[in-house]
UniProtKB/TrEMBL annotation:
Residues 224-251 have a biased composition (Low complexity). Residues 424-434 have a biased composition (Basic residues). GO terms for biological process: coenzyme A catabolic process. Residues 119-269 form the Nudix hydrolase domain. It comes from Rhypophila decipiens. It comes from the Eukaryota. CDD domains: NUDIX_CoAse_Nudt7. One of its GO terms (molecular function) is metal ion binding. Keywords: Hydrolase, Magnesium, Manganese, Metal-binding. Pfam families: NUDIX (PF00293). InterPro entries: CoAse, NUDIX_hydrolase-like_dom_sf, NUDIX_hydrolase_dom. This is NUDIX hydrolase domain-like protein. Residues 224-255, 346-369, 415-434 are annotated as: Disordered.
Length: 434
């Protein structure tokens, strides 16, 4: 889908068919240690009748593209990818402590959510995983340049609720399935992976006046966690996936993890999937960390962070701009965009308008993504950046090196707008991409 943490205007009529899903609780999701209690599977199951998924050709990687992908991965030996367990390592001490804090975090109650129209409810998934050094990274998407609004913007997978019984975590997982191919049903997560829900953050307000719940989850691999169930059982959240929690290695006959977790992205909606260092969202500059061979690769030219204060609904609101460098990783793109990028690198003669017919069809490939004035960086800003800063503050128990709002989320602002009558049902338009 083309919904995101920046836009979040989901149309159920154009969404992929959902599969069997297990949900987490809205209020006690992140209960602290004192609130940990015996919780049964029935507490988190919604009695829905959901059809099984239809095989989707988007998830089949042709041999030629597979070869090109392998060549690109070989180009970045120090990079880590959430779909490749061989590039992941066990959590280091800092990351393990960060995950423990997220497991223990409990957001304040916010009963207004249940009173909001379904068309005002939304959620996003903040998916974390460990890189080759055990440091945490977060998965981010770039919206297609051809979209009507927020084109080329960075976003977390997410979108609107489809019905009033959906929990935020269900919404986030459904949208992650539609946008990046992350299976909704935990039993469909391919070996050796498992997803652990960690916590909710306080609600944020989108520019379109949607109330958005950030949902943080950790993607375990057998390299990063020999038993995801052991980690999950120690947290304050218990979620049944409907499948065995044991993790077994993949066999040669199974699809590769890349084929199972990364969809054949539609160039009309999603332009790219990349990752960013989670801890760096507390820093003013790029964190330069040693690679796997103790070498340090300097980031591309350009600054990592800028920011300014603005007034939004009579509240001071810090606007963060991060410029994530992507020159040391493979950025996954739809086949059409990959083809245009390769064509552009070889083509010397342009039309008078400076673009080819193929480029025009898919919005100039990655050229129109939001990047800094220097190549090799993707801009992450607005509500997405604010959520990442809030999550990193909680995880690492650190305050940012830059100015920021002291509170988490926008719940006070949301309550004020609701009292003013501004959070009435939104009209859904089939082709409205906002």
């Amino acid at each position: 889908m083309n919904t995101s943490a920046q836009e979040l205007d989901h149309d159920p009529e154009t969404s992929a068919a959902p599969v069997n899903v297990v949900f987490d609780p809205p209020a006690i999701l992140t209960a602290g240690a004192s609130a940990a209690a015996a919780i049964t599977e029935e507490d988190f199951l919604l009695p829905l009748s959901i059809s099984p998924p239809v095989p989707d050709s988007r998830f089949q990687v042709p041999p030629l593209e597979r070869t090109i992908l392998d060549q690109q991965l070989d180009t970045f030996p120090d990079a880590s990818y959430y779909w490749d367990a061989s590039t992941m390592a066990p959590l280091n001490a800092t990351s393990a402590a960060a995950i423990a804090r997220l497991r223990a975090y409990k957001p304040p109650p916010f009963p207004l959510w249940d009173k909001l129209p379904v068309s005002r409810r939304a959620a996003v998934l903040m998916l974390l995983y460990a890189d080759k050094k055990g440091d945490l990274r977060v998965v981010i998407t770039m919206r297609a340049a051809s979209l009507r609004s927020f084109s080329g913007h960075a976003a977390l997978p997410g979108g609107k609720a489809d019905h009033p019984d959906e929990t935020p975590y269900q919404i986030a997982r459904r949208e992650a399935w539609e946008e990046i191919g992350l299976p909704m049903d935990d039993s469909k997560i391919p070996p050796p992976f498992a997803i652990e829900p960690l916590c909710y953050l306080p609600y944020s307000l989108a520019r379109t006046e949607l109330v958005v719940r950030p949902c943080i989850a950790l993607l375990h691999s057998n390299a990063a966690s020999p038993s995801a169930s052991s980690s999950s059982s120690s947290s304050n959240l218990s979620v049944s996936t409907g499948a065995s929690s044991s993790v077994s290695p993949a066999t040669p006959n199974e699809p590769t993890v890349e084929e199972a977790l990364i969809p054949r992205l539609d160039a009309k909606e999603v332009a790219a999937v990349f990752s960013a260092p989670f801890h760096n969202f507390l820093k003013r500059t790029d964190e330069i960390l040693p690679g796997s061979n103790n070498r340090q690769a300097p980031p591309p030219e350009g600054e990592w962070y800028t920011g300014n204060w603005t007034e939004w609904n009579n509240h001071p609101w810090r606007l963060h701009f991060f410029y994530v460098h992507v020159t040391e990783q493979h950025v996954s793109k739809p086949p059409a965009v990959e083809a245009v990028d390769r064509l552009s690198s070889l083509e010397e003669d342009k039309t008078e308008q400076g673009q080819t017919e193929a480029q025009a069809a898919v919005g100039n490939g990655s050229d129109e993504l939001e990047i800094d004035q220097h190549p090799g960086r993707y801009k992450v800003w607005g509500m997405t950046a604010r959520m990442l800063v809030d999550a990193a503050r909680i995880a690492y128990d650190e305050e940012p090196e830059f100015e920021h709002n002291r509170h988490f989320g926008d719940e006070e602002m949301i309550e004020e707008l609701e009292k003013m009558g501004r959070l009435t049902p939104k009209k859904r338009k089939r082709d409205d991409k906002m």
